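Weekend entry, working from home. Most of the wet-lab plans are on hold until the incubator is repaired, so I used the time to fold the two sequences that have been sitting in the queue since the last round of cloning. Logging both here for the record. First:
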Amino acid sequence: MLEIVYEDNHLLVTEKPPNTLTQSDNTGDESLHEMCKAYIKEKYQKPGEVYLGLVHRLDRPVGGLVAFARTSKAASRLSEQLRSHHMEREYLAVVEGSDLPDEAALHDWLEKDEISGNVRVVTPGKAGAQEAKLRYRVLARRPQEDTALVHVRLQTGRKHQIRVQLANSAHPIVHDMRYGHGVKGESIALWGAVLRFDHPTQKAPMCFLSAPKASAFGAYVTEIQHFLNQQNTSSQQ
């Protein structure tokens, strides 16, 4: 079932379930993009092919907010906001280790292995590598479980960036099968919780919030709700 967060003539904002493709790939598995196109076609009785612009993505294991554009004009304007970093995508994650700094900036260079698809940190400035920057702050810690809840703000948008950079800092995301210590059947503890941008035609600031649904977040329900309440309050001021 699709979780529609917002829709109008120009936008469709949804909540992607974990382990769902954002966009179709060679696996043939149904993607969120295809589901949303089918939803629009049925709801509005659209003949022929439905236009739905893909503006940004979430890794397959990751759940959270995804915005699609329902017109080419909206797609162009939202893509420009993404390029200029005016579109803000913020994440909540539970990481291994409760001893990380209260806040930090991570600055690395990333390289993708074309055979495995994995991304790794390499020497700064290496040919073909991409610069990756993010900032995080700790919202809560559970020393008894040796985990921490962190709020992550991207400054660049690279493939697997948050997962790779946190793992490289010795604090991999809980249940990350690729870069950490995953548990089969458990969703990665990374969630696209906040999405901010200006409406592509009305220019009004928009802020969407989503509470994480992966099981590892269960130990932090109170702190997550407090964080989302703060975001909602600040967006209304």
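Second, folded right after the first finished:
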Amino acid sequence: MKKYIILAIAALSLGITAAHADNDRAIKTEQLPKAAQEFLQKYFPKQKVALAKEESDFLDKSYEVMFVDGNKVEFTRNGEWKEVSCRFSAVPEGIVPAQIVKYIGENYPGAKVLDIDRDKRDIELKLDNRVELTFDLKYNIIDIDMD
């Protein structure tokens, strides 16, 4: 009988927790973590924000800022950028690590980075020539995909 009670409580707890997952709410840019605010001021000082939102997933929280021109930036819970996506322009200088900029300059001269996405394992970039590059966290190229 105890097993059934414990199982019922666990199922109920999981159901309640799942019901609160995937909650997105609009916020003001002043409500972003300080590191995210500083990043936006440094790299997108003249961009007009269309929407800033806080995304609460099952066990994590993140932030997303979308600009009027279609560009967007995603941040981790502590305000570090995890993705910068520019639709019609290059990712601002200084965001892409210097080692990667050097690799692109040597192998894809004139190409611009339109999207950069980093996580705990790698850094993925999309160039304006439809080439997708993946680097490990030591900036070694590990994959090239040509769309």
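Plan for Monday: verify the second prediction. Helices lie at 2-20, 34-43, 98-107.
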